[in-house]
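Before relying on records like the one below, remember that each one covers exactly one chain. Contacts with other chains, cofactors or solvent are not represented anywhere in the record.
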Amino acid sequence: MLNENIRALRKLRHLSQVELAECLHVSKQCVSNWENDNILPSVEMLVKIAKFFGVSTDALLGLETHNSVCVDGLTATEVDHIKLLVADLKSARGAE
């Protein structure tokens, strides 16, 4: 699960393994090994990865049972817009 989440988050950011490695100050091989489930990142690196992607370590490990979006740094108005967008998407799904 961790390996899949790292890969998915990397791809969502449109980063190559090399680019992610540079951001985290590790080798490309490290990122490749994490994504291929060959090795696990250290606890310190796990925290660093979670902070980089703006997710909790629980989310990264696949332990959260709900989805969340980090809205740190956004204004209250911007957060309200996101809430409206989510409501609209849920409403559109119900209409299918």
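Helices lie at 2-12, 17-24, 28-35, 43-53, 57-61, 76-94.
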